[in-house]
Amino acid sequence: MGIASRDIVGPQKAVVSTTNMFTPIGDHVRVDDLTSATVIMPGDIGIDVTTMAADKVLVQADTQNVRITLSTGSTPTATIGFLLRTTDDWLPITLRKGVTLKAIEVVGGAALQVQFGA
């Protein structure tokens, strides 16, 4: 049985997939104006344009819960969208064609920690 070229043999000879590896692109940012649905994509909301090459993003709710949607035609509200709680770990999202990440606060004062990458 061979090892696929995208796999790495770890120190204990276990096969470790590289699909969970993440290389940051651009600066880590805190998006704290989520009073209305906000697009969180490379080049938007003042995010460094060097992130345009990103195909992944890590997000985590900060201070208050946040709701997100992923499709271009969807808009998050206080009751619609995936709920990111402040107690949740960061969430990795793959930015494929058709994905438009949008976020909104559930309660006033919410923020979203964001890091684009590949």
What does this protein structure show overall?
By secondary structure, the protein is mostly beta strands. It has a single domain (21-117), classed as Jelly Rolls (Sandwich), CATH 2.60.120.10. 0% of the residues lie in helices and 38% in strands. It is built from no helices and 10 strands. The strands form 3 sheets. The protein has a 4-stranded antiparallel β-sheet, with no helix packed on it.
Could you give a short description of this structure?
By secondary structure, the protein is mainly beta. The chain has strands at residues 7-9, 15-17, 29-31, 38-39, 56-62, 66-71, 82-84, 91-94, 99-105, 111-117. It has one domain: Jelly Rolls (Sandwich), CATH 2.60.120.10.
Output mean pLDDT: 83
N-to-C SSE string, H for helix and E for strand: EEEEEEEEEE
Taking pLDDT < 50 over at least 5 consecutive residues as the criterion, the unreliable ranges are 14-18
Q: At the third CATH level, what is the topology name?
A: Jelly Rolls
The CA-CA distance between the termini, in Å, is 29 Å
Q: Give the beta-strand count.
A: 10
**What structural class do the secondary elements suggest?**
mainly beta
CATH architecture: Sandwich
Q: Count of helices?
A: 0
The CATH superfamily label reads Jelly Rolls
**Which percent bin holds the helix content?**
under 10%
Total count of domains = 1
CATH class: Mainly Beta
Radius of gyration: 16 Å
Q: State the shape.
A: globular
Largest beta-sheet details: 4 strands, antiparallel
Strand content: 35-45%
Which helices and strands, and how do they pair?
Layout: E1 7-9, E2 15-17, E3 29-31, E4 38-39, E5 56-62, E6 66-71, E7 82-84, E8 91-94, E9 99-105, E10 111-117
Antiparallel strand pairs: 1-2, 3-10, 4-9, 5-8, 5-10, 6-7, 6-9
